[in-house]
Known about the structure:
This protein is an all-alpha fold and 182 residues long. It is 77% helix and 0% strand. It contains eight helices and no strands. It is elongated. The chain starts with a helix and ends with a helix. The model has no long low-confidence stretch (mean pLDDT 86).
Amino acid sequence: MKYMKQMIHEYATWKWVFFIPFLFIYGWGLRNGVLQNAHIHQLAFNKWDIIIEFLHDPFLVIYFLLPFWLFYSSQMIMKEWDYMLLIRLKSYTKWVFYTFKRVSPVLFVFMSIWIIISLFVTIDIPSENNWSDLSTTDIDRNVITFSLQQAVSSPLLAFMMQVCLFASLLMTIHIVLATLYL
């Protein structure tokens, strides 16, 4: 119950006011790029083309999401560092996992907002459960989805893998930062 209260409280914090509009505007721009690419090459597309492109966009991840997470994670680590707390927890390892427990609601909110916005920018786009013609065609602005459709059988599986891998990366980054801070 306490964890749920932390997550509800986290949804109401100020930082998401800046995060959500930026992600929405960026996602809408990616959507327009995918639609333009599909119309230029006269290929059928679906929601998965936009969702996969949004979740795998290297510029968004490297220049916005990772710096945001690094800043927030390091801020949380510095705020939670206290010798009295360390004495109470009795080991550095327990302190690292304590900070992870404190930052995990933020990670959940962070990932859920990213996923919700990726789904929201696909409104009015045809929905299918398989790869589209655009995904299966090797054209210049379609490298990510073309490579994924060759490696993964279903776009839903690629979506779930990306979310799990990115969440694991963010968890690992936080644990490494907390360990290095000691």
